[in-house]
Structures are given as structure tokens and as C-alpha cells.
Amino acid sequence: MVKLFDSLCVAFCLLIVSASANAVLMDDVGVEDRLIASFDSPNSGDATISAWVASQLGVDSVDLTFKDDSPSESGWLQIDDASELHAYDLATIAGYEASDFFIIKLGVGRSDADDTYLFENLGSLDWAAVNFTDMLVGQNLRFNFGRISHVTGFESANVPEPGTLFLLMVGVAGLVASRVLRLK
């Protein structure tokens, strides 16, 4: 009798949860965002994460453009066209600015598993479209959306290389020299 009651309670809870599920179309979010890198972050401070993101992107620095320290579980929507993809509307985050890159940090509860994931934002910059199955391959983790501790956006700040400017100057000097020689 107790097992029957427990089974009915579980079934009822599953029906309630599935009734409130939302879906978004792939047309809304563009394409699946590309996972660039992941690591096990011993320190989740903004400076540590920013330095890691800059090193992964091969730039001198990155600018933190938005941060959501407590993303809502209900904010993650399943993409209708692809059952393994989920999307998060980044535009709902306070202080949001469109960003080329974003990270998702999980509270995995273990020190031997990656918890910080860097994505390139493809398609619509207002949406994070990720495949959590691919993200967690080989880590043997139980995942639920309540474990996402924050979503953060970054914009890379490229610093021009002196070599590139030098080559441009040599090219301009060559054009000027050829023009002067032609006029003589």
C-alpha cells in the first residue's frame, strides 16, 4: 500500500512538472553554441575566470559584460527541434549586453570534475543554446539545472599587433614612393 502511494505521488509530480514545460524553436536561438573549453576552477572569482577566458581566446584581456549569479531553473527551455539542446534567454539577465562568448559555471560538488565551460555565442546573441549531454561527456556527473551557479558573458578586447601596423605603414610608404617616382 505504501509503495502504491509512493508511486502515485511520483507519477503526479512528473505530470505536474511536464505540464509546465516550455519549448523554444531553433529558429529563435539560431544554432547550437560552440563549446570552446572547460576546466575545474579552484577559484571562481571574476579575475580568475576572466584570465582563463582571455587565455583560451588568445587575447590580452576580456571585458565582463553581464553576470547572473543565480539563473532560474525555469529559464532553461528545451529546443523543440532538437531534444538534447536547451536554451537560456540571456536578454532577461539584468545588465545584459550582447556578447560573443559566455561561460556556464556548474556547482558540481566534486573537485575532480570540470565546472566552468566557455562557449562561443553563435546565431542569436540573445540566447545561450547548449547541449549539456556533450558538455558533460566522460565526467560521470548527475546534472540538473539547479546546479548552474552562474552564466557570465564576455567580450574579447583585441589589442592590435605592432607587426600588423608596421606592415600597413610599409605598404603605404611603398605606394607613396611609387607615386613620387611616376611623377618624376
TrEMBL record:
<keyword id="KW-0732">Signal</keyword>
<feature type="domain" description="Ice-binding protein C-terminal">
    <location>
        <begin position="159"/>
        <end position="179"/>
    </location>
</feature>
<feature type="signal peptide">
    <location>
        <begin position="1"/>
        <end position="23"/>
    </location>
</feature>
<dbReference type="Pfam" id="PF07589">
    <property type="entry name" value="PEP-CTERM"/>
</dbReference>
<dbReference type="InterPro" id="IPR013424">
    <property type="entry name" value="Ice-binding_C"/>
</dbReference>
<protein>
    <recommendedName>
        <fullName>Ice-binding protein C-terminal domain-containing protein</fullName>
    </recommendedName>
</protein>
